Amino acid sequence: MAHRRRLFARLLRRGFVDFVPLVLGMYVIAVIDDGLTWPALREATALPAVVALTCPLWAAWRTRSLVRRARELGVEATGRLLDGTQTHTVTGIPFDRVRARLEAARRASDLTAGNPLRFRWHPYRTRASVQGEVAYDTVAGEAHVEVRTSGNLEHGLFRGAAFTALCEIVRTVEGR
């Protein structure tokens, strides 16, 4: 439970930080357009109120989503779920099956040949993608999955994109 609260607090804090430039920009625009008057400031205070109401709702929804995905994957839901690089090990699946399932996945693109397999994964059905890599250890029979965000999914509503993509890739590789 403490990990979830920390995850929620981290998402909430980052959500507010992402909206501060927008709110400050709105204040500056209001002052430039109307001057420093009470009606202009009253109109400009609507945006911070909206942000103050929507950020906790978004953070709660995102926390619940990440915790659910962590439970499905069998890992603990900590603040590390928001890191830009995520790793996981999958056992008992042959390399050819891993490659075939990634080739068949609609969200995978730019799949390279060889070991490790490198590819792009689109976690949110948009053009934005993360970089994925599956290195197969033939001796142990394990596939090591690593996912990295490439800068385009580290801010705003996309927090935790690497973990979301990791869960989707593992589900695809395992055939679920």
Question: What characteristics describe this protein?
Answer:
5 strands, alpha+beta, single chain, 52% helix, 176 residues
Write the layout of secondary structure elements.
Elements: H1 2-34, H2 38-44, H3 46-73, E1 85-91, H4 95-104, E2 108-109, E3 117-121, E4 130-137, E5 142-149, H5 161-174
Antiparallel strand pairs: 1-5, 2-3, 3-4, 4-5
What do these coordinates show?
The protein is of the alpha+beta class and 176 residues long. It is 52% helix and 17% strand. The protein contains five helices and five strands; from the N terminus they run H-H-H-E-H-E-E-E-E-H. The chain has helices at 2-34, 38-44, 46-73, 95-104, 161-174; strands spanning 85-91, 108-109, 117-121, 130-137, 142-149. Strands 1-5-4-3-2 form a five-stranded antiparallel beta sheet, with helices on one face. A hairpin with an 8-residue loop joins strand 3 and strand 4 (130-137). Helix 1 packs antiparallel against helix 3 (46-73) and helix 3 runs parallel beside helix 5. The longest helix has 33 residues, at 2-34. The radius of gyration is 21 Å and the shape is elongated. It starts with a helix and ends with a helix. The model has no long low-confidence stretch (mean pLDDT 82).
